[in-house]
Amino acid sequence: GDSCSSLTTSMNMTKTRQEIYDSLPTGTQVVVQKYGENQRVAISNLQILPQKPPPISELEDGDVVVGVGSSQVVWTDTVMMTGQYQHKPRLPFTPGTTYSGVVLWTTPKAEKSGIRVGEKIAIAGADAGPRSKGRHQKWGGCASYAVAPYTAARRYPHTWSDGEAASFVYGYDTAYHCLVERGKIQKGETILIHGATGGVGIPAVLMCLSLGLTVIATTRSASKEKFLKNLGVHHVIVLSSPSPSISSFSKEVKKITGGKGCDLVYDGVGGDAITVESLRALKFKGRLLIVGWAATPNVAEG
C-alpha cells in the first residue's frame, strides 16, 4: 500500500525512473526459515523481517517488480511451509502463491508484453512464487515487494480490489489450466467434480457451467447440497456411509449418465480410494484430472 502511494506521488515529480525506485520505503516480508512439523507449527515459526525493494541488479530480462497490495494464503501455502508439497521450496522463502498489486519496475521483455509501471496486475501460475522451481521461488506475495516473470502477470478489472484479484486468480487460474488447457473440455460433455465447494472446486463448477457442460458434484456434507444446487450444479452426490460412499459413487455416476460414465473427472481431493473409484466412473477414453490432494498432503518424499 505505502509503496503504491509513494510511486504515484513520485511519478508526478521530475525524477528519473531509477530515482523513483530508489526512493521506495523499506517494507516487510514474511519468511519461512525452517519447515514445520505440521501446518500449525509452521505458521508459528514464521518470521516477519524488514524488506528493501529488490535490487535492480538481481533482475533478469522478463522480470517485473510488484508492490504487493494483497496476497491470498491458501492450503498450498501452509503445506509448503511443512516441506510436504509436491516439491520443497528452497529455504528461506516468502509464502504467497498468488498476489496482486502495482508494477514498480519492468524489464525490456516485460515492457514489450505491454506491462507498464504504475498499472495493477495479479500474479499467478506455476512459474512465479514458491510454487515455481527457479529463481523466482523465494519471492512470494506475503511481502511488500515481490519479483515475478511477466508471463505470470494477469490483468484484472479496475473496479476490483487487490484482495478480490488475489483471491480470484488462485482458483480460476488453476481451474482454467486444468479444464481448458489440459482437459480440453467441450460443450455437451459431462464432468464429475470432487471437492466442489472448495477453493478450486467452485471455480471449476462455474467455469464448466458457463461452457455448457453437465456437472455432477460430490460432497461429504448434505448441508452443502443446496449450495451446489444454487450454483447451478445438475446433479449432487452426497458421499455418506453406507451408500453412496467413496468406494461406490461410480454407480451413481453411471446411473445419472445412463450407464455410459462421465467424460471427465476433476479431482481436487485425491487419495487412492477416490482415484480408483473415479476411474470406474469414467467412460471409455475419459480424462482424469488430478488437481490436488487435500486428503493426502504428505507427498514431497513420494
Summarize the structure.
The protein is 29% helix and 23% strand.
Describe this structure in words.
By secondary structure, the chain is of the alpha/beta class. It has 2 domains: 2-170, Quinone Oxidoreductase, Chain A, domain 1 (Alpha-Beta Complex); 183-290, Rossmann fold (3-Layer(aba) Sandwich), CATH 3.40.50. It has 10 helices and 12 strands. The chain has helices spanning 2-11, 17-22, 39-44, 75-80, 108-112, 162-182, 201-210, 225-231, 249-256, 272-281; strands spanning 27-31, 47-51, 63-72, 98-106, 120-123, 145-149, 153-154, 190-194, 214-219, 235-238, 262-267, 282-290. The strands form 3 sheets. It has a 5-stranded antiparallel beta sheet with strand order 6-3-4-5-7. A 5-stranded parallel beta sheet has the order 10-9-8-11-12, with helices on both faces. Strand 8 (190-194), helix 7 and strand 9 (214-219) form a beta-alpha-beta unit. Helix 6 crosses helix 7 (201-210) and helix 9 (249-256) runs parallel beside helix 10. The longest helix has 21 residues, at 162-182.
What percent of residues are in strands? 15-25%
CATH topology of the largest domain: Quinone Oxidoreductase, Chain A, domain 1
Taking the alpha carbons of the first and last residues, their distance comes to 40 Å
Rg measurement, Å: 22 Å
Chain-averaged pLDDT: 90
Taking pLDDT < 50 over at least 5 consecutive residues as the criterion, the unreliable ranges are none
**Number of separate structural domains:** 2
CATH architecture of the largest domain: Alpha-Beta Complex
Identify the overall geometry. Answer: elongated
